[in-house]
Design goal:
single chain, mainly alpha, 4 helices
């Protein structure tokens, strides 16, 4: 996905997919970055509401995992 983004940095659907790919790999920082970029560039996109929910969920999960690890 990142190679495709180098060729098409304005392809908003690739940014959304990078968020999914990163979240599945438990790379929550990169997932947040990708989805934040998606929303910044295309806040009125048909999937914007869903992506906002995903961003919120991955942020909460990352925070909970960090708290658990730091005991």
């Amino acid at each position: 996905i990142e190679a495709a983004l180098e060729k098409e940095p304005n392809n908003i659907d690739l940014w959304k997919e990078l968020g999914w790919f990163s979240a599945r790999a438990a790379d929550f920082t990169n997932a947040r970055r990708a989805w934040e970029h998606f929303l910044k560039v295309s806040p009125a996109h048909a999937d914007a509401s869903r992506v906002r929910g995903l961003l919120d969920a991955v942020t909460k999960l990352a925070t909970a995992l960090e708290a658990h690890l730091n005991g």
